[in-house]
Amino acid sequence: MIHSPNVTHRAALGAVAAAAMLAAPLTASAQDCSAEEWPCDTIEVVSHASAGGGTDTTIRMWLDAARETIDEEMRVVYKQGGGARAAHEYMMSRGPDGHTIMALTQTHLYTIARGNSPIKEMDQIQGVARAMDDPSVIVVNPDSPYDTYEEFLEASEDQALTWGVAQVGGTEHIGISRWAEQSGAKTRVVPFGSGGEMITSLRSGAVDASLANISEALAQIEEGDLKPIAVLYHDRVGDLPDTPSTYEHGHEVSVTTTRGYYVHGETDPEIVERIEQLILAGMDSERFKDYLRSSGLDPETNVAGADVWDKQIKEEYQVSLEALRKLDMTDR
């Protein structure tokens, strides 16, 4: 258990000091918290996405188990808007207080790469733990004439197939553009505003193909509502053993949807380590492991600590930045 001497510490404060604390901003005690005392205040997990979505659900699958290991509260705080810009502004206003944990998807990286964030450099953030690394699969309508990757690729070389994406400049768009550059395929993307609308449009026949997360598409693939063509990942995935990896054809493009957590880059390294331990303890719960398994993801390969995750998000940022430059979607 991660212990906190915070209660004893507060009991020793005099009345004047206590009054001053009450009048101070919420983060004052958190800012003064040493690694030995941590946590000294409520820990906030900040989501850029709405309640009930994938980012929120992932947090809640580990949060209760993590909360049981500390003596302070943990709560989810929603800061929506601007493609995670509102969340970034909130983190920067809180500073390196050690009590603000940011949920991350690639949306954060795209917003930073496009210069739309108060976070200007990647050393301003520090990755602490990864929750999932969800590969993407090319899917088509079950009535599509394309049954194999070879057939799909041949058709894409003759004319631009239409691809449904959630947003221009989002994960699917960038992933498709990287794959097209390697494979020589011709593509034309059509934005639908959300992943759900994107898949609905594919099933209706409005577009030829789309790129979906394994966790979100698996049930529809198993029900026969979507046809998988190839996985954009370095290996085949266990739940789709008959679906080839594009790497088998020399198209070495890995596209995944990652979810993980980071803190302000100037956070005390010892506190970063304790936050990492806290989150990993929550992810070691059977509830979280069952959540990953039910999504077709292996807990052993998806969950990762700070060393792996921090390196990954900074590499993914560079890949995203280069892709956005080629799409002429950033001046950076």
UniProtKB/TrEMBL annotation:
It holds the Pfam family TctC. Keywords: Signal. Residues 1-30 form the signal peptide. InterPro entries: BUG, Bug_dom1. The keyword Signal applies. The keyword S-adenosyl-L-methionine does not apply. Belongs to the UPF0065 (bug) family. This is Transporter. It comes from Sediminicurvatus halobius. The lineage of its organism: Bacteria, Pseudomonadati, Pseudomonadota, Gammaproteobacteria, Chromatiales.
